[in-house]
Amino acid sequence: MKNYDERWIDNNGVRLHVGEMNRGNNSETPFVIIPGLSESVEDYIPIMEKLSPRHCVTITLRGRGQSDTPAKGYTLDDHISDIDAVIKELGLKRFILMGYSRGVSYTIGYAVKNPSLLDGLIIGDYPAIHTQLPDGWVDFFSKLPPWRGKSLSERMKPEALHGLQKESSLVTFWDDLSVITCPVLIIAGGKQGAVLREELIENYKTTLPHAEVVVFEDSDHNLFEPDLNTFIQTAQSFFQTCNASQVK
User: Fold this and answer.
1) Bridge-based pairing state of the strands 4-11 and 31-34
2) Residue 39 burial (CB < 10 Å; 0-12/13-18/19+)?
3) Tens-place pLDDT, residues 72-100
4) Pairing state of beta strands 129-130 and 56-60?
5) 53, exposed or middle or buried, with CB in 10 Å at 0-12, 13-18, 19+?
6) I need a labelling partner for 2 at 20 to 30 A (CA). Which of 57, 101, 133, 140 fits?
7) Is the bond leading into 127 cis (omega within 30 degrees of zero)?
8) Across 158-162, average pLDDT
9) Coil, strand or helix: which one is 154?
10) Whole-model pTM?
11) Nearest Cα to Cα of residue 128 among 76, 204, 191
12) Over 80: is that where the pLDDT of 1 sits?
């Protein structure tokens, strides 16, 4: 792939797989992607390609894909530290950050601690809540159909799934969102299976009154289907909003 690089970044002994497109292109604000629960860099290469020539970064969090799977260390703070370690190692000073699905809770957790670094924030079909995964979740999640063409066994090892469940805890961020003053885009799916129901969208409108909300009427929770270009066009438009905000 042209202009694609990958590297492994150490976070206190946990090696994180990071994919980059157009490293060194400083003409546009970098875009950093935090994938969903079981996803990895490979899921987002098509998106990074379509957003070229922008410098794009996708982080495979611990326990997923080609990143290390430690025996423990799967708390919310552990995942936030993965994001922080990559941002610091790459030397990113300002960037637009996106979280998708459960990756939203890690993304918001990072954002409320580092609001001055963000030129924009995209929230993909998930509330401002880090849920506690109940007993029996691993068995339930393991029986779900393949996600975006890959089975769960190809994506995560059993010890990572058990670690996520065991070390999860309920954390809500609604009261913390006021510190985020950069432009915010909230994307919800419009079909059955989408996570952001109307009442949760209203919570975002209340706590982030400056946020833009877009509903992909033809998508369920998977915002990138049936037409990836819907997401690409929406993101590109939001990037222009972020640029205009910087000029003010």
Assistant:
1) unpaired
2) buried
3) 999 999 999 999 999 999 999 999 999 99
4) unpaired
5) exposed
6) 101
7) no
8) 96
9) helix
10) 0.96
11) 204
12) no
Tell me the one-letter amino acid at 95: F
Q: Is the pLDDT of residue 215 over 70?
A: yes
Side chain identity, residue 158: P
pLDDT number for residue 248: 57
- Residue that has been written with the tokens 């963000």 in this structure: 118
Helix, strand, coil percentages for the chain (3-state, nearest 5): 40, 25, 40
10 Å CB burial of residue 19 (0-12, 13-18, 19+) is buried
Tokens matching residue 103: 């990756």
Q: Using 50, 70 and 90 to split pLDDT, how confident is the model at 244?
A: confident
pLDDT at 16 over 70: yes
- Amino acid type, 44: Y
CA distance 128 to 76: 13
DSSP 32-92: EEE--TT--HHHHHHHHHHTTTS-EEEEE-TTBTTS---SS--SHHHHHHHHHHHHHHHT-
